[in-house]
Write a structure and sequence with these properties.
Elements (H helix, E strand, L loop, with lengths): L6 H9 L3 E5 L6 H7 L3 E5 L13 E5 L4 H17 L5 E2 L4 E4 L2 E4 L2 H12 L4 E3 H8 L6 H15 L4 E6 L3 E6 L3
Parallel strand pairs: 1-2, 2-3
Antiparallel strand pairs: 4-5, 5-6, 7-9, 8-9
Length: about 180
C-alpha cells in the first residue's frame, strides 16, 4: 500500500524522467513541468478533488494505492513522453530552450535554427537553410561548418541536427 512514494518508485520515476508529486500540495509546480515537457504523476490525497488532466504527459493516482499501480502509471507516462516530443523554442535574443535546458546561439546559428525549430522533426531543404542564414554568399561548405557548430552548441539540450543526404537537415530529439 502506497501512502507516499517508496525509494523504489522514486528511483523508477527519476530514471524514467517522470515527476511524482503530491496533489494538491505541489500543484504550483504544474505549469513549469508542462513547459519543460516533464511527464508527471500526481498522488492525490484522500478526499481531495483529482486534478483536471489536460496533457498526455499527466496522470494521477488516488492514495492509498498499490506500488504496482504507481509503477505502471510511471512506465506509461515515460512511454507517452517518448512518443510525443516537445518542440524546442527559440526567442529573438537567441535563447534556444528544450525540456528545461537553455543555450544561447550566435546570430548565424539563430538563422539556421529558426527553420529547423519551425519544422522540428521534419526535413528542411539545404537551400532554405542557406537562404535563411545568408542572403548571398552562403555555400554548402559554410552551411556544413555552421551546422556542425550548431550541433555542438545544442548537445546539452538533448537536440541534434541530422543530415538527410541529397536533401537537407532535420532537427530532432536525440535518441536516449
Amino acid at each position: 500500500m502506497l501512502l507516499e512514494p517508496t525509494a523504489k518508485l522514486l528511483y523508477e520515476s527519476m530514471s524514467r524522467g517522470v515527476a511524482v508529486l503530491a496533489w494538491p500540495a505541489q500543484a504550483a509546480e504544474a505549469a513549469q513541468l508542462e513547459l519543460n515537457g516533464t511527464p508527471r504523476l500526481w498522488l492525490v490525497a484522500a478526499g481531495a478533488d483529482a486534478p483536471e488532466a489536460t496533457s498526455c504527459l499527466e496522470d494521477w493516482l488516488r492514495l492509498p494505492a498499490e506500488d504496482g499501480d504507481a509503477l505502471a502509471r510511471i512506465v506509461a507516462l515515460a512511454e507517452r513522453a517518448a512518443h510525443h516530443p516537445l518542440r524546442p523554442s527559440l526567442d529573438e535574443c537567441g535563447q534556444f530552450a528544450y525540456r528545461g535546458s537553455v543555450v544561447l546561439l550566435s546570430p548565424v546559428e539563430q538563422h539556421l535554427a529558426r527553420p529547423l525549430v519551425d519544422n522540428f522533426g521534419d526535413a528542411v531543404r539545404e537551400e532554405a537553410l542557406l537562404s535563411s542564414a545568408w542572403a548571398t554568399g552562403g555555400t554548402d561548405q559554410t552551411l556544413r561548418v555552421h551546422l556542425s557548430r550548431l550541433r555542438r552548441r545544442l548537445l546539452p539540450t538533448g537536440v541534434t541536427v541530422v543530415n538527410i543526404r541529397a536533401y537537407g537537415y532535420v532537427m530532432r530529439a536525440e535518441a536516449s
